[in-house]
Amino acid sequence: MTPAIEVRQATREHRVGQTAVVALRGVSLTLHRGEHVAVVGPSGSGKSTLLQLLGGLDRPTAGSVLIDGQDTAELPQAELARIRNRVVGFVFQGFHLQPRASALDNVALPLVYQGVRRAERRRRAADLLDRVGLADRARHLPGQLSGGEQQRVAVARALVTGPTVLLADEPTGNLDSVTGERLLDLLAGLNAEHRVALAIVTHDHEVAARARRQIVMRDGRIVSDSHIVSDSRIAGDGRIAGDTARRTGRA
Ligand SMILES: Nc1ncnc2c1ncn2[C@@H]1O[C@H](COP(=O)(O)OP(=O)(O)O)[C@@H](O)[C@H]1O
Ligand SMILES: [Mg+2]
C-alpha cells in the first residue's frame, strides 16, 4: 500500500539576505496510514518545517516529499492544494480560525474548496462539531469560545474532509493540562477508530509518551526514530521484560 506520506532526503534551506539558513538537512521518513507519531526536539531543530513539508504547505529545496504517492515538487500549485485538502488535516498552535465566522462555518470552510454544496457542508460540519463535543456551540464566534473549545473547532475543521493524516503543531501548547489531555484523548480516539495517521509536534513529554512512534530532531536532522514494540514481539526475541519497550533505530 502506498504510504500516506513519504519524505526522501529532504533539505529545506531559507535565504536570509546573503546567508542560507538550513532548517532541514536531508531528512527521510515514511508515514503510514494509522500511525501515531510524536515529533520532539529543541526549539529551532526543524520540527515545524518538517510538518509543513509533510502537509505540502511548503516544499523542500532538495530531496522530495510524496503525498499519497504524488511528488509535491512535480504538482502545479492548484493540484497540490487539491491533494492537500483531500489527504491532510492541519492543526496549528494558534488555532487560525476565522474570527467573524461561526464555529460551524469555520469547520465547513475546507468543504467550500472541495465544491461541496451548502446543505451537505453544514450537515458534515455539524457532525464533526458533535464528535468534538461542541454541538451546542455551533453558532458561537471564536471569540465567544474558550481556548480549548477553539482548539477543538480547529480539530473538527481539520477532520471535516476525512483526511488520511492529521498533522498537529504543538496542539496542546496553549491549553491547560486538563483541556490538553481531553484533546489528546480525542485525537487518540480518531487514530484508533478511524485509522487517521497522527503526527504531533510537541514539547510535552506526556504527549510524546502516548505516541507509538517517536521522532527526535536536532539541528535539522532526525537523530532517532523509535517504535514502541508490543509485548508479544518483545517476548518473541526474548530479551526484554515488561509491558512495552522502545526499539530505537538511528536515523
Ligand atoms: N521562513 C524562514 N526563514 C528563515 N529561517 C527560517 C524560516 N523558517 C524557519 N527558519 C529557521 O529554521 C530552523 C528550524 O525552524 P523550525 O522548523 O520552526 O523549528 P522548530 O519548529 O523545531 O522550533 C530555525 O533555525 C529557524 O530559525
Ligand atoms: Mg515549531
From TrEMBL:
This is ABC transporter ATP-binding protein. PANTHER family: ABC TRANSPORTER ABCH.1, IMPORT ATP-BINDING PROTEIN. Keywords: ATP-binding, Nucleotide-binding, Transport. Gene3D superfamilies: P-loop containing nucleotide triphosphate hydrolases. InterPro entries: AAA+_ATPase, ABC_transporter-like_ATP-bd, ABC_transporter-like_CS, ABC_transpr_LolD-like, MacB-like_ATP-bd, P-loop_NTPase. One of its GO terms (molecular function) is ATP binding. The keyword ATP-binding applies. GO terms for cellular component: membrane protein complex; plasma membrane. It comes from Catellatospora methionotrophica. SUPFAM superfamilies: P-loop containing nucleoside triphosphate hydrolases. Residues 5-244 form the ABC transporter domain. Pfam families: ABC_tran.
